From TrEMBL:
Gene3D superfamilies: Ribosomal protein L14. GO terms for biological process: translation. One of its GO terms (molecular function) is structural constituent of ribosome. This is 50S ribosomal protein L14, chloroplastic. Belongs to the universal ribosomal protein uL14 family. The lineage of its organism: Eukaryota, Viridiplantae, Streptophyta, Embryophyta, Tracheophyta. PANTHER family: 50S/60S RIBOSOMAL PROTEIN L14/L23, LARGE RIBOSOMAL SUBUNIT PROTEIN UL14M. GO terms for cellular component: cytosolic large ribosomal subunit. Keywords: Ribonucleoprotein, Ribosomal protein, RNA-binding, rRNA-binding. SMART domains: Ribosomal_L14. It holds the Pfam family Ribosomal_L14. InterPro entries: Ribosomal_uL14, Ribosomal_uL14_sf.
Length: 48
């Protein structure tokens, strides 16, 4: 199975892995949770 998105998007992070912004508008991949990007996962409205 492949997950595809309709648009290209990015989350800018600092050297410690923390997001520079405070909002994420789209869904993110489940693998980010496995890679311990918990702050990004908590900001996202949906995890696929």
């Amino acid at each position: 199975m492949k997950i595809r998105y309709d648009d290209n998007a990015a989350v800018v992070i600092d050297q410690e892995g923390n997001p520079k912004g405070t909002r994420i508008f789209g869904a993110i991949a489940r693998e980010l949770r496995q890679l311990n990007f918990t702050k990004i996962v908590s900001l996202a409205p949906e995890v696929l």
